[in-house]
Amino acid sequence: MEIKKKYSNGEVTVVWQPSKCIHSTICFKSLPTVFNPRKRPWVTLENEDTNTIVEQVKACPSSALSYFMNDEDKQENQSTASTLVEVLANGPLLVYGNLTVKDNEGNESMKSQTTAFCRCGGSSNKPYCDGAHAKIAFEG
């Protein structure tokens, strides 16, 4: 069973899935008032406004962080009309948008927001990035 932790400020709920996290550090370097891995809980939404939190969650390269609005009338449509692919220097291939990933056995999984694909070959969670590129000093 996959672990999902939820943090809410009453307006938005942030969901963290540790198994997807590639430890890019973008969240806590960009928004340390909300994300602080040295504290428990490490996510404290009360320290920032909802729009700032949502924008930071959208920047998560692995989709380990996601969100939903608690008020369904305000819920943002997270689908996108197009897909963007970004190659990170010495890191993963990021795909922004909605996509279906089919594995070598034909199993399909739906991904949305941002998906990080391994480029270094060292991930133990292929085809997804698990941060191994940093450990093996991947250059590319």
UniProtKB/TrEMBL annotation:
Record keywords: 2Fe-2S, Iron, Iron-sulfur, Metal-binding
InterPro entries cross-referenced by the UniProt entry: Divergent_4Fe-4S_mono-cluster (IPR010693), FeS-contain_CDGSH-typ (IPR018967), MitoNEET_CISD (IPR042216)
Limits of the Iron-binding zinc finger CDGSH type domain: 90-139
Protein origin, superkingdom: Bacteria
SMART domains: ZnF_CDGSH
Pfam families, A to Z: Fer4_19 (PF06902), zf-CDGSH (PF09360)
Protein name: (4Fe-4S)-binding protein
Organism listed in the record: Arcicella aquatica
Record lineage: Bacteria, Pseudomonadati, Bacteroidota, Cytophagia, Cytophagales
